[in-house]
Amino acid sequence: YDNATDGNTTYDNTTDGNTTYDNTTSGNTTYDNTTSGNTTYDNTTDGNTTYDNTTDGNTTYDNTTNGNTTYGNTTSGNTTYDNTTSGNTTYDNTTSGNT
């Protein structure tokens, strides 16, 4: 499935096999890219800029928000959690698995 509209620019691209979902909208720019097989989720929004990237297989979660800049990066397999917020800068880095 490949659906592309432009105005406030919406891109919706959806492929299935090992299931790739790529949904991209622009205006206050939203990028949502989702792949599944070894399941990759990549969701990216821009306006007050939110980046949400989520990969699953050996499960990687990468969530990044920007505006009052929040960076949350979460990886799971040998589970690594890295959550970093910037603005009133908060850094929270947590690793788990082989901790």
What does this structure look like?
Residues 1-99 are annotated as: Disordered. The chain has 99 residues and is an all-beta fold. It has one domain (2-95). It contains no helices and 10 strands. The chain has strands at residues 2-5, 10-15, 20-25, 30-35, 40-45, 50-55, 60-65, 70-75, 80-85, 90-95. Strands 1-2-3-4-5-6-7-8-9-10 form a 10-stranded antiparallel β-sheet, with no helix packed on it. Strand 2 and strand 3 (20-25) form a beta hairpin. The radius of gyration is 15 Å and the shape is flat. The N and C termini lie far apart (41 Å). The relative contact order is 0.11. The model is unreliable at 1-99 (pLDDT under 50).
Quickly list its features:
99 residues; mainly beta; 10 strands; disordered N terminus; disordered C terminus
Q: Counting H and I runs of at least 4 residues, what is the number of helices?
A: 0
| Shape category | flat
- Helix/strand structural class: mainly beta
Distance N to C terminus: 41 Å
Helix content: under 10%
pLDDT averaged over residues:
44
Strand order of the largest sheet: 1-2-3-4-5-6-7-8-9-10
Low-confidence runs (pLDDT<50, min 5 residues)?
Answer: 1-99
The sequence of SSEs as H and E is EEEEEEEEEE
Proportion of strand residues: over 45%
| Total number of domains | 1
Radius of gyration from CA coordinates: 15 Å
Region (Disordered): 1-99
Strand and helix layout:
Elements: E1 2-5, E2 10-15, E3 20-25, E4 30-35, E5 40-45, E6 50-55, E7 60-65, E8 70-75, E9 80-85, E10 90-95
Please summarize what this structure is.
By secondary structure, the chain is mostly beta strands. It is built from no helices and ten strands.
